[in-house]
Amino acid sequence: MNGAGNKILVLDLRGTATLPTAAEARAIHRAPGLDYDQLMVLSDPVRPATEAFVRIYNNDGGEAGACGNGARCVADRLARASGERAFAIETRAGVISCERLGEWTYRVDMGPPRLAWIEIPLAKPVYDERRVALTLPGLPDYGEASVVNMGNPHAIFWVDDVAAIPLETVGPQLETHPLFPEKTNVSFAQILAPDLIALRVWERGVGATLACGSAACATLVAAARLGLTGRAARVRLPGGELTIEWRESDDHVVMTGPVEFEREIALEASLFAPPPG
């Protein structure tokens, strides 16, 4: 599947105790036609009143806490199987409420942002999480970044032209900046209007992606905190557009966007065989 271009593979393992290892997640990603940004693995629910527990693997085999585009894809599969329009799934980052709004449109509640340095987490305290100096030798100075946790750590830089950023060069270096003990997603954002943001994202453990839902949420929160936008805006990514709202009533961030079903497959056992020799 894909969510605004974010390549998502949904693997339904409910009814079993099976979970992929990091090596198996990487093997799936390497298989022809199966390369993904995130692998969403469905297991039996843990909490009452949820449809599934979803573990999220990046294509390097590491786990992520949240994936908004992937959550919408999971919601689509569950909604079509059950006929329900509203339900909840559980992830490592917490419970996500999902709602089907149209044939291929879903809204997911990503929960409240975490804004304190220790929650992101950072390696040391900073004076203001909205404005953090993140420089590295040999890299251009893109100014101060805003840091937010939306299930994953995010660093957002504010630039005049996102198209001019050499994302494949600077992304991997900033991802491993020593201020982030768990690495970070790296975003470059351009304010196009008070309710429109252009965004490009280097995802931790993935690379440059066409879309990243948690990054879109983190960027809207950071922009609103700086007074660059209101509490709702459209976020335009290379793969499509998401609508993000940071609700004042309960502090939750809500994302609305599309999903697209591509194909259904069965994983061959040979994917997981050790290489010969």
What does the model show?
This protein has 4 helices and 17 strands. The protein has 277 residues and is of the alpha+beta class. The chain has 2 domains: 2-111 and 260-272, Roll (Diaminopimelate Epimerase, Chain A, domain 1), CATH 3.10.310; 132-249, Diaminopimelate Epimerase, Chain A, domain 1 (Roll), CATH 3.10.310. A hairpin with a 4-residue loop joins strand 4 and strand 5. It is globular. The two termini are 35 Å apart.
List the helices and strands and how they pair.
Blueprint: E1 2-3, E2 6-12, H1 22-30, E3 38-43, E4 53-58, E5 63-64, H2 68-82, E6 86-91, E7 94-102, E8 105-109, E9 132-133, E10 144-149, E11 153-158, H3 167-175, E12 185-193, E13 196-203, E14 207-209, H4 213-225, E15 232-237, E16 240-246, E17 253-258
Q: Would you list the SSEs in sequence order as H and E?
A: EEHEEEHEEEEEEHEEEHEEE
Shape: globular
**N/C terminus separation:** 35 Å
The SS-based structural class is alpha+beta
Count of structural domains: 2
Total DSSP helices? 4
